[in-house]
Specification:
- GO terms for molecular function: ATP binding; ATP hydrolysis activity; transmembrane transporter activity.
- InterPro entries: AAA+_ATPase (IPR003593), ABC_transporter-like_ATP-bd (IPR003439), ABC_transporter-like_CS (IPR017871), ABC_transpr_LolD-like (IPR015854), MacB-like_ATP-bd (IPR017911), P-loop_NTPase (IPR027417).
- Helix content is 39%, strand content 23%.
- It has a 6-stranded mixed sheet with strand order 6-7-8-3-9-10, sandwiched between helices. It has a 4-stranded antiparallel sheet with strand order 2-1-4-5, covered by helices on one side.
- Helix 4 runs antiparallel to helix 5.
- The protein is globular, with a radius of gyration of 19 Å.
- The two termini are 33 Å apart.
- The structure holds adenosine-5'-triphosphate.
Length: 273
């Protein structure tokens, strides 16, 4: 096993050219160890999705390097990058929906098959049981609710034991009881050796992580060890307050709470992009 499941080394990502360019990530350094659950938080536009896409090898940095499971993505051709991604990365992204023509179970088996392995049937059965979706395995995605599809997407990301699992609001479409079950599974998989990085706006989800990385303007603004939900929420509020040009009197609940709430709603409405 590599010392780092994932390393971003002085990564800058710019979109567009010249005056119109946007710097989504700005000389960002991040190392993710195997067997850890890391939450990434930050305001809309702070660079969270960009970070996940680069970490998944789906997009290349403008400068710097991304090292996935010990292999640098810089200089890899498309075939090599695809092979690396299939072997080492599992994703739960809104943009990576289940394949509609396959059953839900076949979707979960797909990453192993694409990587040229026999799926681990026992492991998949256990994951589906734990996620409460074993009875739905023969259905096609359009016969499942959004939350059920989300749970199959989580099973798909974990099934082939990739070195790193990247999830964008994995609990966003789930009711609170199911969200808790998914959190338990992520914690358990991290304890079993996978590196899991979860982008979330939910302090309760972030509180399950052993590390909370706060992004701001494409940089790491804070890097906290395991922290309780109230402290994380406060930390986020303070960031919002710091950016708020209008000082408000009295306790600051409305603005920051609204910021967290609207972000969560957007995730439920169909993701960040
Ligand atoms: N394909 C793109 N083309 C141009 N600009 C982009 C592109 N993708 C992201 N950006 C810009 O890069 C910055 C970071 O975006 P990113 O989507 O990573 O933020 P985020 O923290 O995930 O936001 P959200 O919480 O709203 O999803 C934003 O200013 C965004 O407008």
């Amino acid at each position: 096993m590599h010392q780092h499941a994932l390393r971003l080394r002085t990564v800058t990502k710019r979109f567009g050219l010249g005056d119109a360019s946007v710097t989504a990530l700005d000389h960002l350094d991040l190392e993710i160890a195997p067997g850890t659950l890391t939450a990434v938080m930050g305001q809309s536009g702070s660079g969270k999705s960009t970070l996940l896409h680069l970490a998944a090898g789906l997009d290349a940095p403008t400068s710097g390097d991304v090292v996935i499971g010990g292999t640098s993505v810089v200089g890899l051709d498309d075939d090599a990058l695809t092979a690396l991604r299939r072997r080492e990365v599992g994703v739960v992204f809104q943009s990576f929906n289940l394949v509609p023509s396959l059953t839900a179970l076949e979707n979960v088996q797909l990453p192993a098959l694409l990587a040229g392995h026999e799926p681990e049937h026992d492991r998949i059965r256990t994951l589906l049981d734990d996620l409460g979706i074993a009875g739905l395995a023969a259905r096609r995605p359009h016969e499942l609710s959004g939350g059920q599809q989300q749970r199959f997407a989580i099973a798909r990301a974990l099934a082939h034991r990739p070195a790193i699992v990247l999830a964008d609001e994995p609990t966003g479409a789930l009711d609170s009881a199911t969200s808790l079950e998914v959190q338990e599974i992520l914690v358990a998989q991290a304890a079993a050796g996978q590196a899991i990085v979860v982008v979330t706006h939910d302090p309760a989800v972030a509180a399950r992580a052993e590390r909370v990385v706060l992004l701001r303007d494409g940089r790491i603004d804070d890097d906290l060890p395991a922290t309780d939900a109230a402290t994380i929420a406060q930390r986020m509020l303070r960031r919002v307050d710091a950016m708020d040009p209008i000082p408000a009197a009295g306790p600051r609940i409305t603005g920051p709470a609204a910021a967290i709430g609207s972000a969560g709603d957007r995730a439920i409405d169909g993701g960040s992009r």
